[in-house]
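User: Can you model how zinc ion sits in this protein?
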Amino acid sequence: MVTRREMLGGSLAGGVLFCTCGLLAHGRAQAQTSRFEVKVGGKRVRTIDVHAHCNFADVIPLLNGNTALMIPLPTQPGANEIVINIDQRLAAMDAQGVDVEVLSVNPFWYGLDREVAARIVALQNERMAELCSVHGDRFAGLASLTLQAPELAVRELEMAVRKQGLKGAAIGGGVNGEEFANPKFHPVWAKAEELGVPLFIHPQAPTELQTRLKGNGFLINVIGNPLETTIALSHLIFEGTLDRFPKLKIVAAHGGGYLPSYADRSDHGCLAAPPGACSADIPLKKKPTEYLRQIYFDALVFSPEAVRHLVAQVGSSQVVLGSDYPYPWGARPTDPILAVPELSDREKTDILGLTAAKLFGI
Ligand SMILES: [Zn+2]
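Assistant: Here's the modeled complex, given as structure tokens:
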């Protein structure tokens, strides 16, 4: 029989935590390392990272040997840390200056058979809930959803929020080539709106563009990921989904991709469009750019100037800290926010944690 450790293979298996409550409690007792404390105007602020990935080792036996589903690029920096190990994770957060991570599992099961996907989702949500209940001071969790079966996803979301204490759900950038604006997903958005919980949109690298994004530069991620988020958000705006669900709380990864950096083009497109390209059957209630002020965006845009521009486009109330841990993009994620001269101390404090605390109920 193949053990979990053997299935996982190599260095990835080192220090893997199998999530039982005893081990989780052990993890808490062990994790006391030097902590970088973020201060604004000389005052300590609580930082909440809304963009933190994890996977659970317990799910691996459900993958039928295909661990590449969960970890497609095992040699990528950060891949060794994606399967959560509490001591390692807390030490990394302490070094980063992150007080709380809002954990999510990036969806890898949308293409699987509904029953298998449902088992993966159920186990992940259970493990996430256990982890967050033991380490409630450092972690909040987002649910996984079997989004290829929207009626099941509705039930999963309801249970995750009402019974398991999870704070919302993590969704991809689309589902097997179908856009989130597709009415088949409306019941899921309606449930999220009713529960008042956020949905974190994180892209999964668009397979349609794989040929063009081959070659040097990791373009499938560098360009493909933000482009996928841009497409997902644009459809939610232009298909009237955000009008239909005005209280839906969307959080977009990577600063919303390219949308906030070239937002005004969205306001001008329908002026230049040929007949039929902008349907009179979908009369938007606002200018396209105005919808950006109801979406939340993580600040993973790397430079103080990029953070300043994002805030100028969407408002400081809509921007939250995001690191993409365990993927090592470089600087400490709080640094670009702290270095924006145009932001007040209050705005920095909001972006670093206060807005996320309210949004996720932490
Ligand atoms: Zn990410």
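A couple of observations from the model: The chain has 14 helices and ten strands. Residues 51, 53, 202, 253, 324 surround zinc ion (CB under 6 Å).
User: Helpful, thanks.
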